[in-house]
């Protein structure tokens, strides 16, 4: 009898033979599917879910508790013209979207936290009360997730990444030195929300993996030093991952782009044992990470999205380049971020085909 997707995921992540690994991917830029419509993709394939079905891509099912600002601010449009929309979002961040260009990543203009004064007011919206943060009927949630044969994952939030969101990259780099207690209080606040809400969910719903979000690295490395990360973030991660492990979750990952290599020892100390999405051009090459850290680090991602622009030969070389890591186990390869709009449909379909053939998916 063929294993379910859930069983294949668990075997892969525990270095056991899965028959075939999960065929996961990481989605698409907003402009990518519309481009592919002009190249033959059916018009009804117009979002990630329908694209995954069309291309035969598998996925997790899961639950995302609302562990951020509650209640959010009312979103406000500040300016809207032919080229740009400038708005203030639910977290109080002022951002601008280019209507004619790439829409995947907004341009951030102003952040709500500049000092302890703004944080005091903002913190009032970050109560650790579970009210409104988790579903009312968790038994029903569990039953619905069990109907799927996919691996079940729970979101555990963010520590420094959400702080970066509300103060900005540059300000965080200064504040972590000039007002360290302020940054520590912000990280602690997000940690307490997760600590309070996660056990309530985990008592009622079974999960196979847990995922968080950071995005605190450039291609030159992390925004803060590993020493500071160890002092400020790791102890909070340890508190959260202890909860997850108490409920049987031993595949724990966080989404962090850029060069994460200097932080991998810190992530491991914090209980995070799976690295994702492994941006190759950012410095997070799965081959090098496996060579350096061995089987202690599970891996998801790591296929260089840049090669999809280049054509079949380069795509096949990239797949063959990482096959040795796949053969070691504990690795689910897929594109290392969302597929950009400058990738044509033919190249993407070739990538999926050669990935299946070489990896035996």
Automatic annotation (TrEMBL):
GO molecular function, one term: uroporphyrinogen decarboxylase activity
Gene3D superfamilies cross-referenced by the UniProt entry: 3.20.20.210
Domain Uroporphyrinogen decarboxylase (URO-D): 103-355
InterPro entries xref list: UROD/MetE-like_sf, Uroporphyrinogen_deCOase
First and last residue of the signal peptide: none
GO terms under biological process: porphyrin-containing compound biosynthetic process
Pfam families (UniProt xref): URO-D
Transmembrane annotation, as ranges: none
Highest taxon of the lineage: Bacteria
Protein name in the entry: Uroporphyrinogen decarboxylase (URO-D) domain-containing protein
Taxonomic classification: Bacteria, Candidatus Ratteibacteria
């Amino acid at each position: 009898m063929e294993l379910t997707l859930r069983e294949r995921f668990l075997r892969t992540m525990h270095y056991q033979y899965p028959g075939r690994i999960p065929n996961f991917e990481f989605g698409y830029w907003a402009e990518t599917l519309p481009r592919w419509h002009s190249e033959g993709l059916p018009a009804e394939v117009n979002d990630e879910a329908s694209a995954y079905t069309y291309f035969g891509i598998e996925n997790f099912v899961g639950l995302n508790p609302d562990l951020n600002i509650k209640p959010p601010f009312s979103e406000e449009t500040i300016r809207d013209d032919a080229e740009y929309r400038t708005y203030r979002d639910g977290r109080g961040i002022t951002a601008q979207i280019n209507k004619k260009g790439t829409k995947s990543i907004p341009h951030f203009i102003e952040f709500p936290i500049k000092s302890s004064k703004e944080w005091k007011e903002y913190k009032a919206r970050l109560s650790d009360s579970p009210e409104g943060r988790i579903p009312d009927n968790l038994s029903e949630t569990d039953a619905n997730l069990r109907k799927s044969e996919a691996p079940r994952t729970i979101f555990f939030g963010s520590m420094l990444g959400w702080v970066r969101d509300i103060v900005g990259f540059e300000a965080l780099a200064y504040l972590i030195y000039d007002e360290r207690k302020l940054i520590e209080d912000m990280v602690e606040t997000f940690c307490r929300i997760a600590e309070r809400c996660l056990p309530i969910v985990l008592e009622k719903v079974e999960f196979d993996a847990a995922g968080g979000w950071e995005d605190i690295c450039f291609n030159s490395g992390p925004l803060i030093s590993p020493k500071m990360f160890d002092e400020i973030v790791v102890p909070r991660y340890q508190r959260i991952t202890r909860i997850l492990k108490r409920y049987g979750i031993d595949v724990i990952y966080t989404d962090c782009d850029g060069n994460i290599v200097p932080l991998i020892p810190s992530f491991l100390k914090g209980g995070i044992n799976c690295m994702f999405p492994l941006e190759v051009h950012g410095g997070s090459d799965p081959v090098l990470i496996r060579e350096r850290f061995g089987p202690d680090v599970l891996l998801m991602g790591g296929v260089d999205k840049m090669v999809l622009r280049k054509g079949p030969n380069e795509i096949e070389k990239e797949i063959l380049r990482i096959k040795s890591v796949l053969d070691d186990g504990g690795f689910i390869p897929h594109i290392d971020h969302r597929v950009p709009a400058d990738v044509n449909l033919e190249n993407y379909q070739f990538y999926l085909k050669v990935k299946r053939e070489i990896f035996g998916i």
